[in-house]
Each structure stands twice: as structure tokens, then as C-alpha cells.
Amino acid sequence: MNEEHKQRKETIAALLHQTAEDHHVAYKETDGVDADWSIWYAGHLLENGFDTLLDAKLLKSDVIYLLVLVDKQQMTEAPGARWERYYADFFVTRYLKE
């Protein structure tokens, strides 16, 4: 992975972390519990330039699907991993070509 992709991966991981923090605040009455979290996350990520970071044209439905996919994958393959980094690696590997 080249240096630019490493930097983008860090930026994406930070954006994912901030999205989780913002979601928790938005759903403070339920202590962050939201069965449809991926819908909220997708909108927030796109509003904050997620597609630009990935050099991709993504619909909200694309991001929802991919968030659910990577969530299930991470729970199966790396349940103890830092999820933000795991997700960032998933998206960088999928969209940023060297």
C-alpha cells in the first residue's frame, strides 16, 4: 500500500470513528442503540466526503450494503479487531487501486 493510500485509510478510519461518536450523540436516548445504524452511518459518511476519499461514485444504498457486509465480515473474521481500521481497510482495498 502506497503512502497516499495509507493516509487515506487513516482518514477514513477517523471519519468512521467520528461517525460512531456522532451516531451515539444522535441516539443518546437509546445509548446509541439503533437497529438501522447502517442507514444513519451511510448518510453521515456521504455528507462528510466518504465517496471523495474513496474516489468512487457511491449511492447511499451502496454504502448501506457495504457497511452491513463489512460488519458481518468483521464479526466472523476478526471479532476483536478495531472495527474502524478493519472497515477502513475493507473500503480502501475495494476502491483505491495502486
Top keywords for this entry?
single chain, 98 residues, mainly alpha, 5 helices
Describe this structure in words.
The protein is 71% helix and 0% strand. With 98 residues, it is an all-alpha fold. It has one domain (3-95). The chain is globular, with a radius of gyration of 13 Å. The mean pLDDT is 93.
Topology:
Elements: H1 3-26, H2 37-47, H3 50-53, H4 60-77, H5 83-95
SS content category? mainly alpha
State the shape.
globular
Described by strand count, sense and barrel closure, the largest sheet is: none
Please bin the fraction of helical residues: over 70%
Number of helices: 5
Strand content: under 5%
- Number of discrete domains: 1
Multimeric state = single chain
Q: Alpha-carbon distance between the termini?
A: 7 Å
Rg, Cα atoms, Å: 13 Å
How many beta-strand elements? Answer: 0
Helix and strand succession?
A: HHHHH
In short:
With 98 residues, the chain is an all-alpha fold. The protein has helices at 3-26, 37-47, 50-53, 60-77, 83-95.
